[in-house]
Design brief:
The structure holds two protein chains of two kinds. Chain A is 63% helix and 2% strand. Chain A has twelve helices and two strands; from the N terminus they run ααααααααααβααβ. In chain B, the strands form two sheets. Chain B has a two-stranded antiparallel sheet. The mean pLDDT of chain B is 92. Classes of the chains: A mainly alpha, B mainly alpha. Chain B: Belongs to the complex I subunit 2 family.
């Protein structure tokens, strides 16, 4: 029993310290790593309390999925966190007021707590004898609360539909080869014959590209390093003696 | 366990799944029309199921089917169905809206709303609410390439999540202090003991969360922006079915588990109603966008409906139900005309764009006149009966202040409703609108007929509403 208490204080202390670090550390990657540490310690507390199912769910779902997702977001996306924190000083008083109000409410809630007479007895036998925690949850989740369980699955499915509806786009920029279009292409589609007087460069006449819609800034910019894209077959052909 | 109790909800969800499969495999060009038609069929079929499925408390006290939930569910299905019909033409014409997921999301939202009104447990209530909200967040942002629509969706999502958080906080307090999430047990816990402070705080938080969803003052800030930014077919939906669902949920939660806290919540509801009435009367006076005007007008209507709840008896609740029944039809009709506001293929949203409607489209103008006069509460249109019943209920309960403010605000409100009528008939006409699609004309004609001829069915509707209120109060 004494070991359980020692471990409880150990895990609880680490949990509190690391959750403070989540909020205060300057590097967002460190924040996420501390968050993962938080989850592990909370899971350990659940284990001590005898709720092994919740402990593993916490690790599998929160550490395995949520925290790793955070880590991806933090590392992949170019978010300027110092800019996000810029308003902290300014909004701190308002935040403090809201926090104090919530704290007062919590104090009031705990102060008005009345422990039901039967609660003490129930606490001693948190689960039926011989049935594991997971088993006990499964038994009511799929019987008594089947309706809620199914409803929450529909909620999750709507979330999936929503994510797809809002973000999925048909790829229109794929580089697939369209043979029919290639064969149907005529020289006149790609080439324009220009008459340029002798001694006048193309630059002065402003006819670098025949088609304004296909103007590329890299091409219109003057300079020797103009390269035409391969395969686009767009080129101003200057043939002085064309006719 | 009797699964038949929730047969309509289950059937609607399963229809949603099946139609999604149909939409995925249908040819792209027709997928939207096909899934819309199938969804309408599903809503109609489920409406029939609501009428014939057995009533009673099911799933170990999680869910109930009674006259009250039936009344609200039929209104929800009607609202969702009419909103889908309104979207048929609109979504085809707007960029990127004609995707088959649209009606399916509305189906799931309706399923969530039906669960909300039948919930007899805080957990069921929350899940139904989330199912509804999540689907509605997505449809608000459905025009994903439009900045306004995305903004509306995001705003709705962030503020809606906040409201859900507040609601959950209230639910945990309620659970902690009453020992149960079951409505029956919460009510029993309140009968036997004087309410603890924590339970009252929990009730207030639950109330705030739900009031946020019905967009009553002071939790209305999101509604004008969302109404304006969302695609108009989505706004039409927002103005109708979700309002009914959240209102019905509010009635059930306040009347049943928190019924014994009546003294505590009556004053809150009164204050919310008065504030909504005043804002709903004054704010529309300065609006130029018709969708924003409708948002503020709906805030006002919520205020009138809440008067019935403040009365706190069977008469009040049945008056509120009648009010909601009249409200969704006139709102959907008005939105049908707003959707028809389209010049050379582009929709216009300014109120002044309506000028000259009387000359170019006399039919639409007459319908709009009916809706506006009904919203103003002119007899013998449907809106008059709604207002009459809630005023009567308020006066019977001695809420004179509320009734007097209601009368004053409805006079002020009549000004801007009549201004629209004046614009349509007497102002210098603007260019004509495009010819409205048959689906729009259908909805406008149907809702116009309901609004105009409500007097013929006022008796049966009132009887049904009274039966619903009795079922709730027992």
């Amino acid at each position: 029993m004494i070991f359980a208490q020692i471990f409880f204080y150990l895990f609880a202390a680490i949990l509190i310290v690391s959750s403070v670090m989540v909020v205060t550390s300057r590097n967002p990657v460190h924040s996420v790593l501390f968050l993962i540490l938080c989850f592990f310690n909370a899971a350990a507390l659940f284990l001590i309390a005898g709720a092994e199912f919740l402990a593993f769910i916490l690790i599998i779902v929160y550490v395995g999925a949520v925290a790793v997702l955070f880590l991806f977001v933090v590392m992949m996306l170019d978010i300027d966190f110092s800019e996000l924190r810029a308003g902290v000083q300014r909004y701190a008083p308002i935040g403090a007021v809201v926090g104090i109000i919530l704290l007062l409410e919590l104090v009031m809630a705990v102060g008005g707590w009345k422990i039901a007479p039967a609660a003490a007895g129930l606490r001693m036998t948190p689960m039926p004898f011989g049935i594991s925690n997971t088993d006990a949850i499964g038994r009511i989740l799929y019987t008594q609360y089947a309706f809620l369980f199914e409803t929450s699955s529909v909620v999750l499915m709507v979330a999936m539909i929503g994510a797809i509806v809002l973000t999925h786009r048909e790829r229109t920029r794929s580089k697939s080869q369209n043979i029919a279009r290639q064969n149907a292409r005529q020289p006149a589609d790609a080439l324009t014959m220009m008459d340029v007087p002798i001694g006048v460069g193309v630059k002065q006449l402003g006819i670098l590209r025949p088609d304004a819609a296909r103007t590329d800034p890299a091409l219109t910019a003057p300079g020797p390093k103009v390269t035409l894209p391969e395969g686009d077959a767009v080129a101003v052909t200057h043939k002085p003696g064309a006719h | 366990m009797n699964w038949l109790i929730a047969l309509p909800e289950l059937a609607l969800s399963l229809c949603g799944l099946a139609i999604m499969m149909a939409g995925v495999f249908a040819p792209k060009k027709h997928a939207f029309q096909l899934s819309s038609m199938l969804s309408l069929g599903a809503l109609l079929g489920v409406g029939g199921l609501v009428l014939v499925s057995p009533t009673g408390l099911g799933f170990g006290g999680l869910f109930i089917a009674d006259a009250f939930s039936r009344f609200a569910q039929l209104l929800i299905l009607a609202g969702a169905g009419l909103a889908i019909i309104l979207s048929l033409d609109f979504n085809e014409r707007e960029e990127g809206l004609a995707r088959f997921e649209f009606p399916i999301l509305i189906l799931f939202a309706s399923s969530g709303m039906m669960i909300m009104v039948g919930a007899t447990n805080l957990m069921t209530l929350y899940l139904g609410l989330e199912l509804q909200s999540l689907a509605l967040y997505v449809v608000a942002a459905f025009a994903r390439d439009s900045l306004k629509s995305s903004e509306a969706g995001l705003k709705y999502f962030v503020l809606g999540s906040l409201a859900s958080g507040i609601l959950l906080y209230g639910m945990t307090l309620t659970y902690g202090f009453s020992g149960s999430t079951d409505f029956i047990h919460i009510a029993r816990a309140l009968v036997t003991s004087t309410p603890s402070v924590g339970l009252v705080i929990g009730m207030v938080f639950v109330l705030v969360g739900i009031v946020f969803k019905i967009a009553a003052v002071p939790f209305h800030m999101w509604s004008p922006d969302v109404y304006e930014g969302a695609p108009t077919s989505v706004t039409a939906l927002f103005g109708s079915a979700p309002k009914v669902a959240a209102m019905a949920m509010l009635i059930r939660v306040m009347a049943w588990p928190f019924g014994h806290l009546f003294v505590q919540w009556q004053l809150l509801i009164e204050i919310i109603a008065i504030a909504s009435l005043i804002l709903g009367a004054l704010a529309p006076l300065v609006q130029t966008n018709i969708k924003r005007l409708m948002a503020y007008s709906s805030i006002g209507h919520v205020g009138y409906a809440l008067m019935g709840l403040a009365a706190g008896n069977g008469n009040g609740i049945s008056a509120m139900l009648v009010y909601l029944a009249t409200y969704i039809f006139m709102t959907l009709g008005a939105f049908g005309i707003i959707i028809a506001m389209r010049r050379q293929g582009r929709s216009v949203e300014k109120i002044t764009d309506l000028a000259g409607l009387g000359r170019h489209h006399p039919g639409l103008a007459i319908a709009m006149t009916i809706f506006m006069l009904s919203m103003a509460g002119v007899p013998p249109l449907s809106g008059f009966f709604g207002k009459l019943y809630v005023f009567l209920a308020a006066i019977q309960s001695g809420l004179w202040l509320l009734a007097v403010i209601g009368v004053i605000t409805s006079v002020i409100g009549a000004y801007y409703y009549l201004r629209i009528v004046k614009l349509m008939y007497f102002d210098a006409p603007e260019a004509a609108f495009d010819h409205p699609a048959p689906s729009l004309s259908f909805v406008v004609a149907l809702t116009g007929a309901v609004t105009l001829l409500f007097i013929l069915v006022a008796g049966p509707v009132t009887t049904a509403a009274q039966a619903a209120a009795m079922a709730l109060l027992g």
